[in-house]
Amino acid sequence: MRTLADGHREPGTYVEQWDGRKEDGSPLSSGVYFYCLETAGHITSKKMVLLR
Length: 52
What we know:
Elements: E1 31-39, E2 42-50
Antiparallel strand pairs: 1-2
């Protein structure tokens, strides 16, 4: 698991980019991964595909 952003943010639009690496910096292989977005009172999980 890797955290790309954490903490309070004011309302607005934000972009986070994931480089396909684990927390220790080692690359992950191609595959289907899940991500989770959590806001005040709402959690959303979705799939993404990493192609190398």
